[in-house]
Amino acid sequence: MSRDTPPDRDRQRSRGFPDARSVHGEINSAPEEYPKGWVEQVRFRERYDLPSFRPPRFADGKRVREVVRALEAEHGITLSFVSDGESSGEWIVEIDGRDGFRVARRRDDASNTVVEMTAADFRDRVEEHL
Asked: What is the pTM of this model?
């Protein structure tokens, strides 16, 4: 299973998250290449023997960071996910500092963020707002 393959829901329920643990090795081996928050999450979860960290991802398993970087480079834009100020389970996607559209999000069984749309749908929504 590659890191962009959707998670196996039955295996996730076991809280074993064997594929997610490989992310810890990647991040620990080159922490300077990852966001500080990811490194802190990995270290915190390892210290307290919590379920493994997985970077924020779309419903299809693709990592948000890689999809956002590709769109930003392709279109010369800046994308940001901003809280709507409420605990509604939604974020506002800003495109170059302007409100674009809302996306639903949730936490999986290990408290990792999942955006409730596929990467392809996200790409389409961004491109509709350009």
From this structure: 0.78
